[in-house]
What we know:
Layout: H1 7-24, H2 32-45, E1 54-58, H3 61-75, H4 82-94, H5 99-144, H6 147-161, H7 175-186, H8 195-202, E2 210-212, E3 216-220, E4 225-226, E5 228-229, E6 232-233, E7 241-242, E8 248-249, E9 251-252, E10 255-256, H9 259-263, H10 280-290, H11 292-298, E11 302-307, E12 310-316, E13 322-330, E14 335-340, H12 348-356
Parallel strand pairs: 1-3
Antiparallel strand pairs: 2-3, 4-7, 5-6, 7-8, 9-10, 11-12, 12-13, 13-14
Helix pairs in contact: 1-5, 1-7, 3-5, 5-6, 5-7
Amino acid sequence: MIDKLSPEQEKELSVYRDKWLAVGLATDRIDRKKAKQEFILFNKLVLQNNTIPIVVFMDSPKTAWLATLLLYQFFKLNKNIESQVKSQVKSQVKSQIGSQVWSQIGSQVGSQIGSQIGPQVRSQIGSQIGSQVWSQIGSQIGSQVRSQVKSQVRSQIESQVWSFVHPYLGGHFDSGYFGFYDFCNKVLKITFKKQQNWDRYLKTSQFGLIYSFPEFAVISEKPTQIKMKNTVLHNETGASVLYADGFSVYSLNGVRVSRELVETPAEKIDANILLKEQNAEVRREIVRKIGIEKVCRDLKAKCVDRQGNYELLMLNIGDNRMRPYLKMLNPSIGTYHIEGVEPSCLTVEKALNWRNGTTEKPAVLT
Length: 366
């Protein structure tokens, strides 16, 4: 049992972190001929599927998902493979290293990589795919079938579409996972019972997302562009994640936003869009982009109370109505944002009390 890392092993943590971050953020093209051969071997040896699957390559996760839906309808197959592979590796490693070492490797390799690659890239792509694919399917159904049939078809497709969120292999997006176990394998010298299978699985990190079924597999290319700032997705002039077929994700400081917000010059954005936006993080990015001064000017803001970095503004929200908004400074990122408060709040103190869910006067405004 390994209960403590040596100084030499600790030095290797940053090496493996950087190695797998590079894999997770890679934008090179897949060698499709080689990848097909690798996947067929992986399919046979690791997934123990004796059927030679049809292997299809697509330019993005979106088109890969659409291709998977079509092939699924053809073959009528569904099999979750990710949990089978991962659970075997996890159980073996945990039996050979202590909880402290497990936590140390996880925090310094797995989680640091995963915090950038997982939620910042994969989750935003998945969310974008969901909205775009369903809108396309919905529009096709709407133009081809009557309303009562549409309802039945939608229900059937939804049950199939959303099930594809998990039966996939993450490819290079699973770099946090690969980095963790690669460190255990190479640095801690933990040899897996089926080392050859692990080596095969490790090679899938060179692919994009993989939708794998007994009869077929759809492999997505990696992005052609990934733009980040301070470990989160960010691009002020274009897509933060871009694929060869045009599928893209737009993000500002790690927050997924619309293409229009990113590409429209700040001076041409009407601050009234803040009044329609429900997501607080998106509102923050709107204010950050166009500036609090323009927000106050466009919304005809009038300051009725001020305490420290807080101001209570009365904003014109249309229909001749003025409503209170709390303007506050986020000290961690040094930017202002505004937040609507209950109409009866006419002072900063009352607005803060309402926002914090208490009637007690705050000892310090923070």
